[in-house]
Each structure stands twice: as structure tokens, then as C-alpha cells.
Amino acid sequence: MKYYKLMMDESNVRDAVVNCENSFGFDYSFNNGELIKDWNESITFYLNPTEGDRLTDYLANNLGWLLFSKKLKTLFNEIGIEGMQFLPVNVINEQNLEEKWDYFAVNVHQVVDALHLEGCDYSVLNVGDEKIYTIRKYVLRGESIKNQHIFRLLGYEIPIFTSEKIKSMIEMHNLTGCDFLEIGVI
Q: E-assigned strands of the chain?
């Protein structure tokens, strides 16, 4: 099975980028692989339609969170994809205060130890006693990701990876805002 790094499709200049002014302290909660408790349903993202008015299914935002539409959430539920928590957020047009309630912050809590660092293209920055790895090309161990469809990597929790099944379903349903970069699997 092929695997992909999930990315934002930046090809349409009309795509909206929404901004959140108050995340109520949930800024880094999406990177630790744990379920989020006590979610604040008042978290609001604001759309400025003069900067982009096309609401995509994977919605770009200033926090770098995965914001998925109800259509994308429904698709994941219908095909039985696990490892995600969907948390409702408000999206409001700042010009007319029209609300869109069909978006969710997505917490991908499935974390796997699958990076095959020896096969990756990366650089290392030494900061004091700490080494910071910047990975340009990912290679994963197939036996570690078997039967996983969406996940983060242990130690590299920011990028999200998906299976070919997810990529195919998103493309088949013409869902917007997603782009995929194929990664190596050994």
C-alpha cells in the first residue's frame, strides 16, 4: 500500500484562510497523540472574504490545525477510519457575521514509531545538547504502519500521513483543500 504526507492544496487563490484569535490554550494539544478533553466549543475562526471566499473541505488557518468540513468528517466515519477526534469549531464571516458550523478541528491521536531515518533525506541542526532533524523526504517502515490509515510519527508529530485508501476516497468524492505527497515505504 502507498502512503502520503497530507498537505494543504494551495493552488486556488480564492481558497479561504481563516484566523483564530483565541484558541483557549489548545495550541499544541494536537501534537501529543492524546485525546483532548474539556474542548472549548467557543473556539472561532474568522473568514475575511476579500482575502479568499472559497471554503474548502480541508480549511487553511493561521494555527496550522487540521480543520475538516462536515463532508470530510462524514466520509471518514462512513469508511470506518479510526485514530481521529473531531472537535467542533465555529467559522464566521467577519463581514456579515454569517456562521458556518460544519467544521471540525481534527486531533489525529494515532502515533506510530515508523520513521526509517536511514532512508530519509534530512539535515541536523545542533542546538546545545539537542539535535533537531529537518526531514525533506520521508521513508517509513511498512511493518510499523500496517493497517494504519491516518497517523502521526513518534518524535515528528506535526506532519500527518495517510494511506492510499484515504487519498483515493478524498479524490473520488472531489473533496477540496487536500494535496498529497507520496512517501517512501520499505
A: 3-8, 17-20, 44-47, 60-61, 66-69, 84-93, 99-108, 111-112, 121-127, 130-137, 139-140, 150-153, 156-163, 178-185
Query: CA–CA separation, 168 vs 170, rounded Å?
Result: 6
Q: Which helix (H) or strand (E) holds 76?
A: helix 70-78
The rounded radius of gyration (Å) of the Cα atoms in the chain is 17
Q: How deeply is 124 buried, as exposed, middle or buried, from its count of CB atoms within 10 A (0-12, 13-18, 19+)?
A: exposed
How does DSSP classify residue 34?
S
* Angstrom distance (rounded) from CA 55 to CA 161: 23
Task: State how beta strands 111-112 and 150-153 pair.
Answer: parallel
Amino acid at 152: R
pLDDT tens figures, 45-96: 999 999 999 999 999 999 999 999 999 999 999 999 999 999 999 999 999 9
Residue 46: count of CB within 10 angstroms of its CB? 17
Provide CB contacts within 8 A for 169, sequence distance 6+.
Answer: 75, 79
Q: Measure the CA–CA gap between 67 and 99, rounded to whole angstroms.
A: 15
How far is residue 179's CA from residue 56's CA, in Å, rounded to a whole number?
12
Cα 84 from chain centre:
10
Q: Report the C-alpha gap between 10 and 60 in whole angstroms.
A: 9
Q: What angle do CA 185, 56, 168 make, to 5 degrees?
A: 35
Write out the three cell numbers for 39.
474542548
